[in-house]
Amino acid sequence: MRKPIVGGNWKMNRGTPNETVEMLESLIPQVEGIDSVDIVIATPFTVLTSAYKVLKNTDIKLGAQNMYYKDKGAYTGEISPQFLKEIGVEFVILGHSERRDIFKESDALINKKLKKALSMNLKTIVCIGEHLEERETGKAKDIIQYQINETFKDLSKEEMIKTVIAYEPIWAIGTGKTATPEQAEEIHMFIRDLLSLKFDKETADSIRIQYGGSIKPDNAEDLFNKNNIDGGLVGGASLQANSFFQIIEAADKSIR
Ligand code: 13P
Q: What b-and-e string marks burial along 21-57, b requiring 16 or more CB atoms within 10 Å of the CB?
C-alpha cells in the first residue's frame, strides 16, 4: 500500500515571509487529523526559513524547488543541498518542466542533482512529462520512457524507492486543462511498467507516482481514485490554504 503524497509547489508566486507564515498557519489546523497522506510544501528559497519555523513541530514537510549538485564553490546564484539540509528542508523537487524548458536543464544534469540529493538523504520529487505537440503526435510514451531512462540512469533499487515521481504533462500545467483521470492513469501505469522492467515489480509497486497539472479541489478526487495515482503535485491551488486542504482531503479519502 503506497501512502499518497500531496505537494504544494509555490513556484515564484508567494515570496514574502508574512504571507508564507499566514498561509501555513491557516493550513496547519486544517490538516491536523490527517495522517494517511504525506504533505509537502515547496516554497521559494528566500522563505524556507520562515516556513521552517512554522512547520517544524508539525507533520507538514518542507521542500525546496531546486538545488545544485555541488556542496559549495563558485556557482553564482545556485543553492547547495547542504544549505537546504541545514535549514530543515526534507524534500527537493528536481527536473520540473519549467526548469527543463525555461532554464534548459538536461536529463543528465537532473540525474546528477538526483544522485547528489539522495546521497545527502534529501527526499526527491522528480518531474517528467510531455509537451502538447508530443502528445498530439503520439510521442508521449516515447518521451516518458526517454526521461525515465536518462533521469534515473544508474540509480540503485534502494535509491529509486526513495524517489517520488511526478508525472506532469506540460500542456496541463497552469492551463486549467487537466489530464482526464484515464489519460493520467494510462501514463502512470506505463511508468510503473517501465520501472518494473528496469528494476522489478516489487520496486515498481512501492514507488509513489504523483500527478501534476491543474489539480483543483473539484478534480482531485477522481484523479486520486485511480489505482496508480498516488497523490499530486499542485501549483496554483496550493497557494491558498483552503483549496490546498481540499486536495489533501481528496487524497485522504482516496485510500479509504
Ligand atoms: P498547476 O497546478 O498550477 O497547473 O501547476 C502544476 C505544477 O507545475 C506543479 O509542479
A: eebbeebbeebeebeebbbbbbbbbebbebbbebbee
Any atom of ligand 1 within 6 Å of the Cβ of 213: yes
Catalytic residue positions, numbered: 96, 168
Atom of ligand 1 nearest to the CA of 11: 10
Q: Identity (one letter) of the amino acid at 114?
A: L
**Is residue 215 in contact with ligand 1, taking CB distance under 6 Å?**
yes
Cα–Cα distance measured from residue 131 to residue 250, given in angstroms and rounded to the nearest whole number: 27
Q: Measured between alpha carbons, how far is 82 from 244 in angstroms, rounded to an integer?
A: 29
pTM over 0.85: yes
Nearest atom in ligand 1 to 174's CA: 4
Give 127-159 pLDDT, tens digit per residue. 999 999 999 999 999 999 999 999 999 999 999
What do you get for the CA distance between the two ends of the chain, in Å? 12
The fold for domain 5-253 equals: TIM Barrel (3.20.20)
Burial class of residue 97 (count of CB atoms within 10 Å of its CB; 0-12, 13-18, 19+)? buried
Q: Which three-class secondary structure state does DSSP give residue 48?
A: helix
Specify whether the CB–CB gap between 230 and 185 falls below 8 A: no
For residue 61, what is the DSSP state?
E
Alpha helices in 78-231 (DSSP H): 81-86, 97-102, 107-119, 132-136, 140-151, 157-161, 181-198, 201-206, 217-224
